[in-house]
UniProtKB/TrEMBL annotation:
It comes from BD1-7 clade bacterium. Pfam families: OsmC. Coiled coil: none annotated. This is Protein YhfA. InterPro entries: KH_dom-like_a/b, OsmC/Ohr_fam, OsmC/Ohrsf. It comes from the Bacteria.
Amino acid sequence: MKATVKWLDNAMFVGESGSGHSVVMDGPESAGGRNMGVRPMEMLLLGMGGCSTFDVISILKKSRQQVVDCRVELEAERADAVPSVFTRINMKFVVSGHKLKEAQVKRAVSLSAEKYCSASIMMEAAGVEVSHSYEIVELDAE
C-alpha cells in the first residue's frame, strides 16, 4: 500500500492513495489553515470508522441479514499534552434494516473489533481505549 501527501500552501495538503483517490487536508485558521478540508487526525478517525463499517456490513450480508443502512458514530478524546494522541475512542454502530437479529449485529461488531479491523486493532495496540456499541433500527416493511 502506498500513498503520497503533497503540501499545497499554509496548512493545506492533498493526499493521494495508491488507488488514485485524493483528499484535501487542512488545518484550522489558528494554525495558518483555511479550514477547507479534514484535519489529519480526523482522517485517522474516519479511516478507522470506514474500516470497521466495511467489516460489519460484510459480516451481516454474509449472515443474510437485511441491512438497509449502517453508520458508525465515532467520538474520540485526545491527550492534553503534545503529542496530542488519541486516548479513547468510542464507536457506536447504528444498523438499520428489516428483521435484524441482535445476535448477528453483536457478532459482526465483535468480529470487526477483535479480528478484522486493522485500524481499530492497531489503535488498541498503541494504547488507545477503544469501545464499541451498537443500536438496531427496525425499518417498517414496505
